[in-house]
Amino acid sequence: QSSRLLHPEDTIVKTAHTEVGGNKLALMAGPCSVESEEHIHRMAKVAKEAGATVLRGGAFKPRTSPYSFQGLGEEGLKYLREAADENGMDVITEVMDDEHVELVGKYTDFFQIGARNMQNFSLLKEVGKTKIPVALKRGMSATIDDVLNAAEYIAACGNNQIILIERGIRTFDNKYTRNTFDVGAVPVLQQLTHYPVIVDPSHAAGVWDIVTPLAQAGVAAGASGLIVEIHDDPEHAFSDGPQALKPDTFKEMARRCEEIHKVV
Ligand code: PEP
Ligand code: MN
């Protein structure tokens, strides 16, 4: 079902305010974590102003340390949904656990499957049983075939509204960037599947001043969209502050990427 050979035409994933894989570059943005009601409303306005149609924000966070901020849970989902609705946007948020698929599904327009869960097959099956689009992040050590098989788990359960996200992989040198952005994965995945491919330059870069060049590279390579972390006070962000773009930098990134998208 995922293979281009069996399904030659591109899949376009459509939600109320967004088309991923259509002619327009899909722009998703927001903070790494939903931090408060007030903050997510402010970030939604920034994202919207820059042209984003999807608001991101984690309410269930897969933190490396169990002592780090774990997210606001359902309260965060409510704030995220309200902030998106107020600005005429869609919501993308991570679901970490099969037991939470129903709960998260009440609030979101796209399920995000995080890199750490790319091969959590019971979670993939659970989101595969819904009709909600699934944005699948490439695992940090996942090969292209691993990504394709993970997508197949979702599709095999009946949900073919799938978006693939290249977000960087672990390589022998991740001293200056958090991960190694595999820009070649964009055209390769597009050749092999009919699903739209977007890029997450934030988790690939890990530092804010590398985000724009990677975003530009991803769009130049043919990505259908971007998912980017933004924050107005990155030093005090609850998670991933170092890679967050401030509002003005984000606006400029979006402007440049839209220019590039017109010529690819
Ligand atoms: C995130 O989007 O905040 C996140 C945790 O991403 P990833 O799964 O790519 O690390
Ligand atoms: Mn993050």
From TrEMBL:
GO terms for biological process: aromatic amino acid family biosynthetic process. GO terms for molecular function: aldehyde-lyase activity; transferase activity. Residues 21-263 form the DAHP synthetase I/KDSA domain. Keywords: Transferase. The keyword Amino-acid biosynthesis does not apply. This is 3-deoxy-7-phosphoheptulonate synthase. It comes from Ligilactobacillus ruminis (strain ATCC 27782 / RF3). The chain holds residues 64 to 327 of 331 of the full protein.
